[in-house]
Structure formats: C-alpha cells, structure tokens
Amino acid sequence: MTTSTPKFKTNNVIDIFSRRPYSHSNIKKFNRLAPEYDGLEMIYSNESNPTKLFSIKVLCWGLRSDGKVVGLVPWLDKIVPCTQIQDPLNGRWEGYFDPKNDEIFYEAPVHKIIELETAFEQYGNHEIFEGVIQEIPDIIGTHAVLSSDGFKNITLKEVVSWTLLSTGSIECMLIDDSKVSSTPVLPGDKCLYTGSNEKSFKYFFQHHIANKIKARDPKALEAIALLVDT
User: Fold this and answer.
1) Do both 21 and 122 map to the same domain?
2) CB-based contact 164:131 (threshold 8 Å)
C-alpha cells in the first residue's frame, strides 16, 4: 500500500494577514512603509572593529506580506531590512537603538506596527494598482554616489524620496536638474527619477559622510580613493 501527500494549489490558500492568495515568492514582499520620525537607529558591528558598535538612523519601517514589521536602512547599494545587512567586513545587525531613552530593543515599536497595519487595512489593496503605490520622503539625508569612471570622479545627489512599487520593491528618487521647474523639490515632483535608471549609481552614503566629502575632508577623500577601480 502506498500513500501520497495531498497537493494544494497555492492560489487557493489565503494569507490570513493580507487576505490575499499565498505565494512563497512574495512572503517577504513589502506592502507598506512608514517613515521613522523619532530618530530611532540601527546598531551594528563588524569584524574590523570587534569591540565597537556603530549606528545609523533608521529610514523607515516596512510591513511585509508575512505580517512582520522591520526597520529599513540604505545599505551599500540598496535599501535593506536592518536584520539582513551584509558587507565586505561582515557587518552584523545588533539591534535597534532609541538615543533619547538610551534603550536597545530588537522588535519594531508597537506604535509603528499599529500604524502600518492600520494604513494597510485602509490603502493596502495593491492588486488594483500598478507602478508606484506609495512615496515617502527621505528625512535622514541619504545621498547617492554616482561615478562613471571607477570613482576617479564622483557626483553626490541627495535622495529626495523612496517609492514602494506594486512589485514590493523600493526605489530611491533622484533629481533631474534639467527638469526642475520649482523649488523645493518635493516627493512626487515630475523632475524625479528612480536610482535604478541611473547607470552611474554606485552606493548610498549617509549625510555626514556626504558632507565630509563635499568639504573635502582628508579622511573622507582617502576612503573614496580606496574605491577607485584598479
């Protein structure tokens, strides 16, 4: 006698959180974003400085299709969940940090979870949209580093906003200076274009690093020199 495991069509299985057909392929797709306005940070470590902890500001919180809420940061050349950062020095997430209360924590704040879940209930039916479904401002001063000659020359462009697409991906929005008709340039302006369409895009830099480069700080310029292709 032989037995067989019953097979189910995944499009007949409904995700209890999103109330939409379940799919393994979009289990970690982002459905909604909420900017971080209270200055919460991500802390991390790396192998080169094993006794130190570093921090960068959390850009926003994202609600995934599996119902999990995670912090997001611009990291190297993409925006990633804080818990999944990776770099050549084996950077590792160590938690979230509230500098106002000197508190380390490991799960998204309850108020952000409630905000995202409530907003998703109201606006989260992505099946009726295509393209951009949400755009949030960048309030942490992220800069995109552009170079078309192996870092011998670089251009720094401020990231104005981030768009959440119906595919679940998140794109940075940069200013096309030739199309600016009024200032300040705000999220949704027609002069903005996605970083993925910028062939010379290399990395994201935090604002304080970008400002040091603009001021021609020797240490910052030395670090940029190390990136020059050989």
Assistant:
1) yes
2) no
Return mean pLDDT, the chain: 85
Task: Using the predicted structure, report yes or no on whether residue 55 has a pLDDT greater than 60.
Answer: yes
Q: In 10 A of CB 103, how many CB atoms? A: 11
In this structure, are strands 54-57 and 60-64 parallel, antiparallel, or unpaired? unpaired
* Domain assignment present for 1: no
- What is the total count of domains within the chain? 2
What residues contact residue 222 under an 8 Å CB cut-off, 6+ apart? none
- What pLDDT, in 10s, does the model give residues 97-153? 999 999 999 999 999 999 999 999 998 765 556 788 899 999 999 999 999 988 888
**So what's the pLDDT on residue 125?**
64
d(CA 31, CA 19): 13
Q: Per the omega criterion (within 30 degrees of 0), is the bond before 184 cis?
A: yes
Domain end residue (candidates: 70, 101, 128): 128
Same domain for 190 and 91: no
**Alpha helix segments (H runs only) across 124-169:** none
**DSSP characters for 63-87?**
EETTS-EEEEEEETTEEEEGGG---
Rounded CA-CA distance 73/76 in Å is 10
pLDDT of residue 7: 40
Residues 6+ positions from 106 with CB-CB distance below 8 Å: 95, 96
From 101, 128, 155, the end of a domain falls on 128
- Write out the residue range of the structural domain in which residue 44 sits: 16-128
